[in-house]
Amino acid sequence: MHQRRALLAACLACALHPARAQPTSARALRIVVPAGPGSVPDVRARWLAERLGVELARPVLVENRPGAGGNLAMEAVARSEPDGQTMVMTHVGLMVFNPLLYERLGYDARRDFTPLTRVGVGPMLLLVRPASPHASLGELLARARREPRSQSFASQGIGTPPHLAAELLQQQAGITAVHVPYTNPAQPVADLLAGQIDWLFEGTPVALPLVRGGRLRALAVTAPERLNELPEVPTMAEAGLPSMNFEGWTGLALPAATPPAVVDALYAAVARVLASDEARQWFASVGNRPGGETPQQLAELVRAELQRWGAVLAAAGLRGSR
Predict the structure, then answer these.
(1) Rounded to 5 degrees, what angle do the CA atoms 285, 224, 143 make?
(2) What residues does 60 pair with on adjacent strands?
(3) What is the pLDDT of residues 260-304, one digit of tens each?
C-alpha cells in the first residue's frame, strides 16, 4: 500500500511538472563558456548554472574554454553528443560576427547548433575620458567630419562588438576614424584614460561602473531608450542617428541534433529562471535585461542579424577578411 501511494505521488508530480520531469538525468549538465573566468559570459553562466541546477534538480557545471576568439568552444560543443548534456554560452560575436568574418570556421553557426534562448541583452555606451574636449556626440561627430581620420577609437580586436559598433557609427554618421585593435581586453580603457585614443564603445556591464565612478564619460547609448541607470545619457537617435541601434547579447545553444523534447524541456527551465524578479534586478544592475525568447525566435533573430551585419561588414571591407 505504501509503495502504491509513493508511485501515485511520483506520477502526479510528473504530470503537474512535465517540463521539469524530462531533463532529470543524474549526469551533470555542462555549460561551456568560450572565455576565461571573470568574463561577462562566465559570470552569466555561473549565475545561471546555480539557479538552473535548482530548477532541474541536477548539477549544472561551468567549463571555461577560451581561445581563438571563442571558436574553439563553439567547435567543441558542435561536435559533442546531442543528448542535452552540453550547451554553450554563446553570444552575438560567435553566432553572427565570426561567421561573417572568417572564411573557415570549425563550426557553422546555423547548421551545427540549435539556439535555445538569449540570456542577457544590452546596449553599448560611447565613452570618452572626462577631460575630452567633446562635450557631446554632436561635437565629436562635427570635428570628425571636419577633420577625417583625426580621431582614433579602440576595441578588443577586429570583429569584436566594440569594433563593429564603431564601424556602424562611421557608416551612419559619415565619418572616418582610425581603428586601434588590442588583444588585451583591459588595454583599450587604460589607453583611453591615458589619452592615447579618443573614444571607444563598451558594453554596459563593463562601462557602467567606470561611468558611475567618474573615470569615463558616456556621450550616448546605442539603445532605443535611455538607460534607467544613466538617465542623463542621450540615445543615438536623440543625437541625430536614429538607425544607430546596437544590442549585444549572450545566449545558449545546443548541438544541432538535440531531440526537440529535450530542447523544449531545457528552454522551459531556463525561461523560468530568466522570468524571475531576481533575474530582472540582476541584469538591470548592469544596464541589461534578461532574454527568454523561444528557440524559434532566437533562430530568426540570428538570421536577421546575419543579413544586417553582413551589409555593414561588406561596406567596411571586413566580410570574409579573416
Answers:
(1) 100
(2) 29
(3) 999 999 999 999 999 999 999 999 999 999 999 999 999 999 999
pLDDT-based confidence at residue 105 (cuts at 50, 70, 90): confident
181 contacts 155 by C-beta, under 8 angstroms: yes
CATH 3.40.190.10 is right for the domain spanning 123-221: yes
**CA–CA distance, 242 with 272 (Å, rounded to integer):** 34
Whose cell is 587604460? That residue is 190
Tens-place pLDDT, residues 151-176:
999 999 999 999 999 999 999 999 99
CATH (one of 3.40.190.150, 3.40.630.10, 3.40.50.1860, 3.20.20.100) for 16-121+248-316: 3.40.190.150
- CA-CA distance, 105 to 223, in Å (whole number)? 31
For residue 153, the SS3 value is strand
Angstrom distance (rounded) from CA 70 to CA 160: 11
C-alpha of 42 from chain center: 11
pTM of the model: 0.87
Q: Cα–Cα distance between 85 and 29 in angstroms, integer?
A: 5
Positive/negative CA dihedral, 158, 164, 169, 175: positive
